[in-house]
Structure formats: C-alpha cells, structure tokens
Fold:
Amino acid sequence: MLKQELTDAISEARSAPPGLIYRLRMQTVGEELVSATFNERKNVSERFHVVCSVEDFEGIGSGIRGELTRFGKVSFSCVWPQFERLSTDPLIEVCPIYKAYHQPVPDKNYTLVVACANVGSTTPLVSILTHLIYDRGFEDYEHIQIMAPVIHVDAKAELERRVTLEKVEWSPAQLDTVFGDSWSTVPGVGGNPNVRAGFSSTRERLQFMPDEVRIDLNKRREEIRALRLGSGLSLD
Amino acid sequence: MVVEIQKWALRLLGEGEDRFIQRLSRKRTGGDSFSAGWRYELAYNAHVVIVELAKLLAAYRKDEDIVSIRNCYLDQSPTEFVDDVKIKTLTDEFLVQLKSGRIDWVSVVADFKLQKRHDEIAHRDIKYRLVNGSATSLASLQERLQKRGLDPSQAEVFAYPESFPAYLRQNAHAAYSLKQLTGSANMLDQETAYRALIYVIIGESGKLSFVDLLSKASRRLYDFLTPLEEYDIYKDFEDLIQEKVPDVTAHVSGRLLHLEDAGFLQSFVVPMNQQYRDGLRGWLNDHEEPGLHDLTEALHQFHWQEVDRSENAETRAD
Structure:
C-alpha cells in the first residue's frame, strides 16, 4: 500500500503539462519516494550514488538527490540511453549508452540508486545497470535501490531474470499492467517520460545537458587541466 | 529439394532412395520440435556466428586469402540427415544436430549413422556435432555418445542462455570474440552487437556467408559492428587525438569514435566523406593542445555527428 502523499504526488505529476511543470512535480515524487523508502529503514547508508537518464535528471532525479542529502553524501551519473525495439516477435530490444557523465565512483559502502520515472520494458534499466556496474566500475556498492514510482507489474521478475545482481531493492511503486508505445507503461507518468520531460525530438534530448552536469563537468575539466599543467605533464 | 545430399549416394545406402528422401523432407519441415527448439537454435547459431566471425577477423588481419574467408558460411536449413545447422569454417565443415533438452537417441543414432554412411559413399570430408543444452557435463554427453556407438568427440554442450550475462558466463570464448568484433570491452556495447546479430540471423534462412552476415548487421553502424574491410582503417584518429588533445581518451571501433574526458563520454560517427576526415586531421595538426570543447566543435564543423540511433539509421553510405 503506497503512502497517500506519494500517490497524490504521482497523480499530480501525471496530470501536469509536459516540460517544466512536469519536472517540478516529479521532483516532489522523488522526495516522497525517498521518504517512503528510507524514513523507517534502520541502518540507512551514508553515501549514495544516484544515476538517472537525462530526461529524469531534473525531475525525479533532482528530487531524489536533494532529499537523500538528509541522510548522507550524494554523487550522481547522468546517462543518455537510446532505446530501440528491433523486433517484436521475438522481442529484441537494445539500449546502448553512447553518452554519459559520471562523477567519480564512491569508496565502498555506498548505495547505488537508480532513479527513473517509469519502468515498463526493463531494457533501459538493465542497460543502465550494466553500463554502471560492469563497464564503469560501480561494482562495490552495498546495495542497489531502484526508485521508480510507476512500474510494470512484471518488471521486478523480468529484471531478476535478465541480470544476476545481488542486493537489489525496489522502492514502493504503483503497478501498471499495460505497456505504452515505447518502453514506458500506461498510464505510467502520463506518457513517454522523454516527451513528458519536454523533449520534442530525440536529437533535442541527445543535445540537452542539464546545468548541474555542465557546471560539474567544467569544474572537473579545469581541475584536471590544472593538475596536469602543474605536474609538468604538458606536451610542450 | 535435395541439394547437398547426393542422390546417387542415397541409392547406394541400400534401402531405396525414396525412403531416404522422404525422411529428409520430413526433417526439412522441422519435425515435431520446431517451435520448441527454435530459440535454442537461434542462440546457438548466434554463438557460432560470433565465434567464427572473430576467427575470420583474426585471419583477415593476418592477410589470409579473402576468398577463403568469404567461403565460410552458416547454413540454417541444410538438407541433410544431421540437419539443424551446417557450418563451414576455414579449416572444417560441420553438420550439427541441436537438442535443447532430452535426446531421442534412436532418431539421433539413426541420423548420424545414415549421414556418415552417405558421406563415406559420397567421399565428403565432413564432421558432425551433437549439441545438447541439458547435459550436466561434456564428459557425461561424451559417455552417452560412446555407449551408443557414436564418436564421443562429436559432443558439445551449449546451455540456452537466459540472459546476455549468462551467455558470457557459460561460453568462455564469447566475451573475447565479441571484444574482437566490437572493438569494445564494454558489456553493454557487446550486448548491443549480440542482439543486432540475432536480429539479422532471424531474417535469414538457408546459407549465408559469415562475412555477408556481418555486412548486413553492420549496415546499422551504431550497433558496434563493422564490415570486415572497414576494421582498423580509422584507427589513426585514436593516436592523433590522443597526442593533440591530451586530456581526452579516444577510442575508435569500426565507424564510431568514442571520447572520454573528466567522466564525460561521447560517441561520434566517422564520416564516409574523406574531405570531412581530412578536415579534422588538418584541424588537429593546426591546433596546439585544444580542449575537448574545442575538439567537439571541430567534430561538428567537419560533420562528425553524435551517435543518434533515430537519425543515423543506414548511414554507412552517406
């Protein structure tokens, strides 16, 4: 049984117009999801790394990252997965990640949080986990917390079948039984999360970089450049 | 239609040509287990394609005769008694019988023996494999073959992979082969290529050379696959970018350029137009230690597009 505050927040986000209002309402969903997940849990981790797709970064991702700072230090990854269904019978889906930004991998004993507005097909979720854990070294996590307010009723079992990861926990979620036209569910969060977040095309989504990512990236680039020049590693 | 089997050799099997042709045509329609075994066959065929393509790529890189390489193939519906798959590699030819679960030994033994007798009469130098998905070990399968008078070296165990990580775990050569084919050690890149190959295999029936299969799968260049003749040809950009933009890690696999700096990853499509490639080369040579931001602008200027699956479809020839 979902908490009323979370149910209300999901309903409000679902009925919000696409773009900024939707993203703001999804921030509230993210905050409620953190409360519903961690408020009554004992031994909450003090270190979190939150990953989400670019369309969720300033919405649910932002709410979750902000609220988790009540419990400990929070770092983030932002990824741009590109989902495509190649075939329906048999079902063949791919979701490579050609673009991503990762803050450094935390030391041990952290919770790896995957924040997504909606889980229908598990392919994007599997891709994000594979990318992080197998390909980018986020492997020493204490546990994985999947935080999605609306998921397909089979999502948990399907994820379990597709990846053999230990210590995966799901936050409370509304269950949908119907798939939408892409990887999302109906009613889900009121449609495809890419469109709901305000992107009118895949190109626009691909080229969009959240301010928080841009600022952090520029800062790190300067630090690395200064470090290299300072240690005499210049090619001059 | 009997294509590979020699009719004159069937007559010499001694029990009447018609009976054997009837047996063959019944097998061609898939018998009773077509739907049950289809996914298993698909998974096995994908595995064969991956392993054999990696071997062919290695041979290509060692300047092996291209005609021999192109002659290697996968036949998904051979007209044979051992009839699930026919594989031609650089060194051998195999007929494969696939059994995902329980083995009907009476039928298997009959088919293997008939096939062998036929091939001896027809002087075909061909090997056989019995591949099983439920055997607990290779030794136990070999023992069962031996007990029934078949050569135990024909045994192979291939468990149906429930997921891509399971496929990699169960097959020691798979990760290595996929790394060769994709130019990437990343599991997600390899999984994308694996699924792209399966997608192509499903659309094919009968005999298709491994090289042609790779070409078909590579038409979508962002699936981390490359036609044989395009491997390694853009590798020079790796060193050039590395040398000129020291804060960046560059990696070229096939037609994709992957860049990484300060935790930020991006991928671009190497343009077919040589002017654009030369343009970037010239820009890199003319600039002293540009940052990634400058490089990204130059990439756009010379039409190196960011990978966008919805827009770069079928762009191998632009």
